Amino acid sequence: MSSRLRRLQSRHLGRPVHLWTHGWFGIPVLVLPSASGMAHEWQLGGAIDALQPWLEAGALKLYCVESNVSRSWLSDAPPAVKLDRHAAYEAFLIDELAPWIDRDCQTHGIPMVACGLSFGGFLALNLALRHPERFPKVLTLSGRFRVWPFLDGLPPSRGADAYLQQPLAYVPNLVGDALQRVRSNLDVTMVVGQGAHEGKCIPETLEMGRVLKERGISTRVDVWGHDVSHEWVWWRRQLAHHLPALTQVPLEKAG
Fold first, then answer.
1. Selection from 76, 68, 75 nearest residue 12 by Cα
2. CB-count burial class (<10 Å; 0-12, 13-18, 19+) for 84
3. pLDDT digit string (tens) for 40-64?
4. The pLDDT of residue 1
5. Distance (Å) of CA 231 to CA 19, 90, 115, 191, 196
6. What contacts 235, CB < 8 A, 6 or more positions away?
7. What predicted TM-score, i.e. pTM, was given to this entire model?
8. How far apart, in whole angstroms, are the C-alpha atoms of residue 255 and residue 251?
9. What structural domains does the chain harbor?
10. Which backbone phi and psi does 183 adopt, to 5 degrees?
């Protein structure tokens, strides 16, 4: 299996961004990390080992990129600055990283799976909802989807910007061409456990799933048992169960 660390210079962020790639061929998966923001999070958590059969078979290729949540949503910066820094990160993903992945896959505009756990679940789903042609499939694990508590004190003039970054706010109001664009492209899978430390992930995942289904967006919510806790021992199992299935490439037919 091929694993490699790269540093991509970003004009939107004004700094280099760490990116780990795993695998040599297959459906590209953009991995958005949890609140840790680390590009090597999935390696530390054992997810790369758990997915090794599919990576070696050429069914999946993972692009694990660092995030800027410590500089945006989880920082002590003013709310307007948080929004601007998140917008810059999204611009990096769409304008810089996605074309880089195109070149790496030798396919212009290649569709990707967006995947994230915990806070990365919000990043993945929000990105896919805003760019469904680029990310027609999304997988969230133990996701959190209420981000407006991080924007307390935001000036009213920035209300529209905040609204457009909060799926629980804008999805219920999608209509017309905007709704059809999402309906015709996006397929969502959301997973959550009911055990220790899942806490607010449970109601927020159920609420987000309900809102998506009410708008006719293809959505599956998979609730695991009361022993399933908010930690890697379960996320590894959930990833091995769901992520290969989203590629529609059975292991025995890959390669």
1. 68
2. middle
3. 999 999 999 999 999 999 999 999 9
4. 60
5. 23, 26, 16, 13, 9
6. 45, 47, 117, 141, 142
7. 0.95
8. 8
9. 3-253 (3.40.50.1820)
10. -60, -40
